[in-house]
Amino acid sequence: MSTIIEQPRYGCAISSQQTVLAIPGAHPILHSGPGCSERVSYFNLTAGGTKGPGYTGGPHVSCTNSTQREIVFGGIPKLKDTISGALKVIDADLFVVLTGCTSEIVGDDTVSAANDFAQQGYPVVGVETGGFKGNVFYGYREVVKAIINQYVGDATPKVRKGLVNVFSVVPYQNPFWQEDLIEVKRLLTSLGLEVNILFGVGSRGASEWKDIPNAEFNLLLSPWVGKEVVELLKQKYGTPYFEFPYLPVGAESTGKLLRKVGEFTGVSKFVVEKVIAENEEVYYSYFNDLENFIVTFNNEFAWEYFAVADSNYALGVSSFLTNELGLIPKGIYITDDAKKAYQEKILEYFKEESDQFENVIIFENDGGKVQQDLRSRQGEDRELILGSSWEKFLARETGKYYTSLSLPLTQDFTLNTSYVGYRGGINLLKEITRDIFR
């Protein structure tokens, strides 16, 4: 890295061990120095809404724990011993070998070592994830592409009508990722679609990944993360994809998503509108309860807000707060370090949502600079800050309201919390109003 940043929001590429762990029955094997996996686990679990380590996660992750000996003489023999050991003692359906900085710097060919086991019939995949190559978003992309290329392979598609693969959040990088994916699957299933959600408890694990080539289409719920993956699947298996630029929050954007997916797939308009009507009936019955609260506590309610999050959640949550709740954005800080071309596209997406987003979108992954700019935009009125634990400290210091939204979250149990869809919109409203009572 060329600069030092304050208040980090994500880890390096080897943090993608959590991407592997998010696949039920998958196991990461690290070829790295001691400590890499421990730091990744600590950040993504303790600072990710106090998550548990999951299946074979945390202290159970296999690692070569490379030392000076492996750096001088090469670490491939030790890596092969580690892979052999993991295959004997870990009950997993898929093994993904990841590299740390040291093994890549000395030139260990980890991918070839993994391929040696794959050629013997073992479900082993190799990925280069040296921390100097990129952040967790890079690592996620490389892991997903490697599983598709090396494990799923050159399969002949047997397309099933209505089957969709979903690519969206980076597991564990989004503190609400698991429940978000469950809600996305519920919504799509309600349209009559069959869903490969790929990660979390709603996935069938490795067998679901093997089913990827058979999808009728791929759904990308993100402004940029996963774009290269769906492009790869289009090239490799001829699978078309549909893009929706963010995770929908609340009734307006969720209804928009369902209608667009219905149009793309040919689902009956009657079915789509029936699903929307059933969800909106429940949603607005809760939403109307908020009206009495606002009338009673109007002087206490925060009508202006700041949001600090990755581009996916920043888009979805901000659209909900502005277009449905009527709040005014004062600063939206996007922290996922998207490339310039993607940043321009993200600005276009915001512009499509509302002209109120003009001049309030800031791309910045340095937490110190985020807080400095946020302070300069604060007023004397009641305001809401949505973000990480860093922003919680700022909110308490400056007397603002606060709602958890992004990593790091060191003082929250996210458990089954989600802000996605109809249910997620109500959850977000509940969290926002809760801090007013506090």
Summarize this structure briefly.
The chain has 438 residues and is of the alpha/beta class.
Indicate the topology.
Layout: H1 17-21, E1 26-31, H2 36-46, E2 62-63, H3 68-73, H4 76-89, E3 94-99, H5 101-105, H6 110-119, E4 124-127, H7 136-152, E5 163-167, H8 177-190, E6 194-196, H9 206-210, E7 217-221, H10 227-237, E8 241-244, H11 250-265, H12 269-296, E9 304-309, H13 311-323, E10 328-334, H14 340-353, E11 361-363, H15 367-377, E12 383-387, H16 389-398, E13 401-404, H17 421-437
Parallel strand pairs: 1-2, 1-3, 3-4, 5-6, 5-7, 7-8, 9-10, 9-12, 10-11, 12-13
Characterization of this structure:
This protein has a 5-stranded parallel β-sheet with strand order 11-10-9-12-13, sandwiched between helices. The protein has a 4-stranded parallel β-sheet with strand order 2-1-3-4. The chain starts with 16 loop residues before the first helix and ends with a helix. The protein folds into 3 domains: 13-152, Rossmann fold; 163-265, Nitrogenase molybdenum iron protein domain (Rossmann fold, 3-Layer(aba) Sandwich); 269-437, 3-Layer(aba) Sandwich (Rossmann fold). By secondary structure, the chain is α/β, with parallel strands linked by helices. It is built from 17 helices and 13 strands. The longest helix is centred in the middle third of the chain and has 28 residues, at 269-296.
